[in-house]
Amino acid sequence: MAAAIGKMTSSRVSDIIRGVRGIRGHEVIERVADGFGIPGAMLGLPPRPWEAIDEGGPSTEVSATKRRDAAKLAGFTFVTPAATADLLKQAVAEAAEFTRQAQESMLASDTLDHLDVAVTDFNRAYSIKPPHVLFEAVLDYRRKVSALLKGTYTHHQGRELLAIAGWLSELLAWLAHDLGNARTGLAFAADAFVQGQQAGHGQLCAWAMDAATSINLYEQRPTEALTAARRGLAEAPADHPLTVRLHAQAARACAADGDSEGFTAALRSAEDAYQVLPPRSPRRFGLDVLPLAEYALTSYPATSCIWLGRADEARRYAERAIATYEAAPSTSHSPSREAIARIDLAIALAQLGAPDDAVTLGHQALESARVVDSVRSRARDLTSYLTRRYPRHTVVEGLRHAMAHANAT
């Protein structure tokens, strides 16, 4: 067809047939008519120059051949009115079958509702249940959703299943991080991002990259962390607290890489985004997400300032972070994040020459109701600094013993 029409590639012809592209320009339609010998009247054109007046002449024979070839190539057949009537009667049943296929599903009527409730319950249990117990239960559901995705369902149900799969993987990423397995955490974060893409759920993609950013930071991979934060920002709604959080994540990644200017710029972007948030905060699985942005504006800069050697700023941010955590409603309380804020304040005070206060805060953090791997990691930073800075200080030894016990459990 491309050869007959001229000035057109076969791939473009294929795109036109599939509806991906259209035909533009009167001249293209004329080339189609001339290339296949289609009379101009059939395409809304004046008679073509090659349309012969004398019946039986050479040009008539050529045009008839071209018309037959055109009909074969385009898949057209010339039918009688009676045949058309029969075709229309048959098409009624075909239309009904098309509709039935679009609605065909093997999912029970309450399956999606049950899965929605399960995802909500899992997320609400995140800060309460032990991570190893929750990981096993969430992974079981993720496998069940994977099996459902191999079955038959409507297009709408498919998008919901993909989103549920993504939310479960996003939670598994955090749980794997809590259990100290970065490789598994990053794998599930990547899966959550892909499931979100397939579901057309940009916000899910952004939450997945939030998890990937934190995991990479604890693995001391600031470049990968910054890349993940920026991927998340490309998907997050501009007026959502998640955008604030991702800008703060980017600031933390810059600080981890020693980029003081990048940290300041990214933190300013986070603060600017916070200022334009709408009056009503969105909810995630029934929970207010605004506290997550407020935590990020205080806790993340505290850690960042420690990495950048700004102990006094770190102290102020950490004190604000602890106050924010303590004032949060019980539904938004995060014991592990509060413990990390206490460790940040402890490190800042140790840097400012107050080792006794630092040790006290370290013990408070290790007595948290949820000592996960990220808490232990920051506590190791604290004990390591105290041991180097105050090698003969007796209270430091007690913190080291508490740290050893936390690692054992």
Question: Can you describe this structure?
Answer:
By secondary structure, this protein is an all-alpha fold. It is 73% helix and 1% strand. The protein contains 19 helices and two strands. Strands 1-2 form a two-stranded antiparallel sheet. Helix 12 (241-256) runs antiparallel to helix 13 (260-275). 36% of the residues are buried. The model has no long low-confidence stretch (mean pLDDT 87).
Keywords summarizing the entry:
single chain; 409 residues; mainly alpha; two-stranded antiparallel ribbon; 2 strands; elongated
Task: Give a brief rundown of this model.
This protein has 409 residues and is mainly alpha-helical.
Main beta sheet, described? 2 strands, antiparallel
Oligomer: single chain
Radius of gyration, taken over Cα atoms and rounded to an integer in Å: 32 Å
SSE ordering: HHHHHHHHHHHHHEEHHHHHH
Task: Provide the fold topology.
Blueprint: H1 2-5, H2 10-17, H3 26-36, H4 58-74, H5 81-103, H6 111-124, H7 131-149, H8 155-178, H9 182-199, H10 202-218, H11 222-235, H12 241-256, H13 260-275, E1 283-284, E2 287-288, H14 290-307, H15 311-327, H16 335-351, H17 355-366, H18 373-389, H19 394-408
Antiparallel strand pairs: 1-2
Helix pairs in contact: 6-8, 7-8, 8-9, 8-10, 9-10, 10-11, 10-12, 11-12, 12-13, 12-14, 13-14, 14-15, 14-16, 15-16, 16-17, 16-18, 17-18, 17-19, 18-19
